[in-house]
Amino acid sequence: MGLLDGKTVLVTGILTDASLAFAIAERTQLEGGTVIATGFGRGLSLTRRVLRKLPDTPELIELDVADPDSLASAAAAVSEITDHLDGVVHAVGFAPEACLGHGMMAASQEEAATAFTISAYSLAALCRTFHPMLCRAPAGASVVGLDFDASRAWPLYDWMGVMKASLESLSRYLARDLGPDQIRVNLVAAGPIRTMAAKSIPGFSTFEDTWSAGAPLGWDVGDAGPVASATVALLSDLFPATTGEILHVDGGIHALGAISPSPPPVA
Ligand SMILES: NC(=O)c1ccc[n+]([C@@H]2O[C@H](COP(=O)([O-])OP(=O)(O)OC[C@H]3O[C@@H](n4cnc5c(N)ncnc54)[C@H](O)[C@@H]3O)[C@@H](O)[C@H]2O)c1
């Protein structure tokens, strides 16, 4: 018996087989769930090809989270496949080049606003668009977003860190508003994983080395498995009373005051 037997989950953000969303979709299927995938813009044909690598090739819906018309068409397309959704995975992020790796003075207001629309506001847009279908989930529904710990300022992450802080706050407000409909909203704060989005951060490899050396549990930047299993747990019935939560899946880095490259041995 799988953790997601009988559940239908909409998974955004699959671009390559390195995408966090790909690992989440794969794990969802292995746990008995049905995946409906969304793809975006010029990446759509790449997404279509990559989906064939999953155990079952899911239905693919086109969705630009920044475009209200696209959101409406996606809702109509999903409702032709299913009358309800048990889960939605928000695995979408984008920031213009000036927003990452150039300090906080480089990005224009317009560039920061673009990053906000796609990387943070889109969580509310997805919840609003699929709200009627989430309300029809027989055992309550779960929305899970992907976060990068925004409780402190990181090197290079710059405006994307501000977007993740917005996403964290937004998830708590959505949890407040959607709880009465038995819709949970939680985030998984992942450590760095080598994906297309991560590679667009200049100097990302410095991040990788520090994380792998400093995490109490260690960290493998090539393994999205722990992020996928945590997400699937939040999508499942195992967390029926948890909402507005941020689950850190980062090898333990968030718990440290300072990142030491070689922790002292236990006496
Ligand atoms: N990779 C990491 O180190 C890491 C760590 C923590 C959190 N995250 C978060 O995980 C999420 C997924 O990113 P990823 O690392 O798997 O990279 P990825 O590049 O594989 O995925 C990013 C996705 O966002 C989609 N996207 C961008 N603009 C869109 C739009 N307007 N409409 C719909 N989709 C759009 C892209 O098509 C792509 O599928 C992001 O929110 C990212 O910030 C990533």
Task: Compose a concise summary of this entry.
With 267 residues, the chain is α/β, with parallel strands linked by helices. Helix content is 39%, strand content 14%.
Given helix and strand content, the structural type is alpha/beta
Q: Shape from CA axes? A: globular
Largest sheet: 7 strands, parallel
The N- to C-terminal Cα distance equals 43 Å
What are the bound molecules? Answer: nicotinamide-adenine-dinucleotide
Strands in their spatial order, largest beta sheet: 3-2-1-4-5-6-7
Going by CATH, the homologous superfamily would be NAD(P)-binding Rossmann-like Domain
- Rg (C-alpha, Å): 18 Å
> Proportion of β residues?
5-15%
What fold name goes in the CATH topology slot? Answer: Rossmann fold
Alpha plus pi helix count: 8
State the domain count: 1
**What's the architecture in CATH terms?**
3-Layer(aba) Sandwich
Nearest-integer average pLDDT = 95
Reading off the top of the CATH hierarchy, the class is best stated as Alpha Beta
Helix percentage = 25-40%
Order of helices and strands: EHEHEHEHEHEHHHE
Number of strands: 7
Tell me what you see in this structure.
The mean pLDDT is 95. It contains eight helices and seven strands, in the order βαβαβαβαβαβαααβ. The radius of gyration is 18 Å and the shape is globular. It has helices at 20-30, 44-51, 68-79, 109-135, 158-178, 196-199, 204-214, 225-235, and strands spanning 8-11, 34-39, 59-62, 87-90, 141-147, 183-190, 246-249. The chain has a single domain, classed as Rossmann fold (3-Layer(aba) Sandwich), CATH 3.40.50.720. 39% of the residues lie in helices and 14% in strands. With 267 residues, it is α/β, with parallel strands linked by helices. The chain has a seven-stranded parallel beta sheet with strand order 3-2-1-4-5-6-7, with helices on both faces. The protein binds nicotinamide-adenine-dinucleotide. Nicotinamide-adenine-dinucleotide binds at residues 12-16, 19-21, 40, 43, 63-66, 91-94, 118, 146-148, 190, 192-193, 195-198.
